[in-house]
Amino acid sequence: MADRSPATLAEYSEEQLVEAARSLSDGAWAEIYRRHAPQVYAYIYFRLRDQHTAEDLAADVFVKAVAGMGGYVWRGTPLLAWLYRIAHNVTADYRRSAARRAQHTVIGEPGEVADSDDALGSFERTTDMMRAIEALTEEQQQVIVLRFYQGMSTAQVAVVVGKPESAVKALQARGLRSLRRMLTADGAEEERATA
Amino acid sequence: MTERQSGRESFEDALDSAIDALRAGRPLERVLSDHPTHATSLRDVLDTALLATADGGGYVPPSARLAEHVTIVRAAAQRAHMAAAASQAVTVAPQRPSWWQRRLTFASLSIPAGVAVFALGASGAAAAAGVAAVTTDVPAQFVRAAAPAWVRDAVPGFGHNHDGDPVVNGSPTAEGSETDPAHGDTQTPGDINKPTTAHIAGVVTTVNGNRFTLLDDEGEWLVQIDASTVVDGAIAEGARASVDGDLTAGKNMHADAVVVTSPAPVATDDDAKKTPPGADKTPGPPENTPKPTNTPRPDVTPGPADRTPPPGPGGGQGPPEGSGIDGGSGNSGGGNGRSDE
User: Fold this and answer.
1) Phi, psi of B222 (to 5 degrees)
2) How crowded is the C-beta side of A18, counted as CA atoms within 13 Å?
3) Dihedral sign (CA B182, B185, B190, B194)
């Protein structure tokens, strides 16, 4: 199929782009990747906290989307919601396989950490938060990442995870309470250790 | 949202509203004042929420590798496109029919074969019945009567005599095949229910009530007379007589007319003790009934068309009930719908 110029496809609406993608136009898929890859990467990164793994898995998400495009029907729902669902499954599969391999994840880049106390404290807080988020359930992780790291509304999160808004709010509340318990317990242990 | 407006607001709803308000830039204390019922619980959780988003949450943006991975996605789309084109070319070729199509084809071929086998079997059954009738002494009408109606309908010629005339089951007179052609007694076409008439001539050998035996060149015949029989002369042993009547079975005959052509020799005292036929046991023609004098001797062959079959067992009216032979309802030999219990 003839590849169209990116400038033309960039002006496509999402519905038009989906239609072109259903005909397996590699140009249409390239445009879809350009539009949504950063968000898919961010979602995966906040789940795994590994840049390289997140980049590779983001590409896997779109490869799986190409294979499954035949069953995708445009109903006005953002394509990103469908991509997030694929990303959730890809991430869950990776974490299960990583757990079996007992692979250590790389948290951020060491060179990015500043030498100031504030930066060190921030890094430690971030590390604690990331470890706490990783301890949440899959559904709670998904909601927390989409809500707080992707900047989505409750309604948007509900579309992505395929649950009603009331269920999303409940997962959000339980996730935040669990994070607080874990972070508070870590803080109490640290105080006792330094005391 | 004020407390009044959110009087019955759940904690989850309050938390979600508070998060949106904080994200919009509203101060925490103002947000908590909007939900006084849940303020204490909200404060702890909102601190955690703020902490989660602090410093961007440690987000590391993607490197150039992410953009380079677009080639992977393009290649995947191209492979899928080629695979789709190849599958369409394969579907053009003749495909193996689906399982239900194969079964339908088998059924459509097997049905004619089954019909042919059935017809052969039915023909064989009919042939066996015919052989049985010929090789055994089972009267043909019983064989045909015992066969179901569908055999008669399905097998051409079954239930018909040698001349192709239909045979009435159970009718003892409808045994065309039993008729001896030497006597010229054959059914005319159309005489479906007509008994076989015959004409014999010979010597009366024995007399017993309303029956006598007559001996001719073909053998001894048993003749029965009754009140409807027209008797011309005295039937006695030794008399010569000719008989016209209906064949019943074998060399049995029911006489319509008996003509004594030559009287018996003079009877001795012993002979006089025998009861002549028609004298007392079997009523003969009434006294005042004029004897037929010019009774035309019927021809040998076909009986008069208007001759009414005499009543009697098997006299053309079909077998009496209980014989187990149905006159035409396709009984398979079990009686008139009755099972052999």
Assistant:
1) -100, 120
2) 18
3) negative
User: Which of B46, B51, B53, B68 to mutate against chain A (most A CBs within 10 Å)?
Assistant: B51
Report the alpha-carbon distance of residue B61 to residue B56 in Å, rounded: 11
d(CA B69, CA B172): 102
Residues from chain B contacting residue A58 (CB–CB below 8 Å): 62, 66, 69
Of B47, B49, B73, the CB nearest to A63: B73
Q: The complex's ipTM?
A: 0.75
pLDDT tens-digit readout, B291-329: 444 544 444 443 444 444 333 333 333 323 333 323 333
Cα dihedral A97, A100, A104, A108, rounded to 10, equals 20
User: Which tens digit of pLDDT belongs to each residue from B68-120?
Assistant: 999 999 999 999 888 888 887 766 666 677 888 888 877 777 777 778 878 88
Contacts of A51 in chain B (CB under 8 A): 60, 62-63
When CB atoms are compared, the residue of B48, B77, B84 closest to A176 is: B48
| Closest alpha carbon to A64 in A87, A42, A47, A37 | A87
Residue B80: list chain A partners with CB under 8 A.
24, 66-67, 69
Nearest Cα to Cα of residue A64 among A32, A101, A110, A17: A32
Tell me, yes or no, if the pTM score tops 0.80. Answer: no
Give bridge partners of residue B243 from the DSSP assignment: B200, B258
Positive/negative CA dihedral, A80, A81, A84, A89: negative
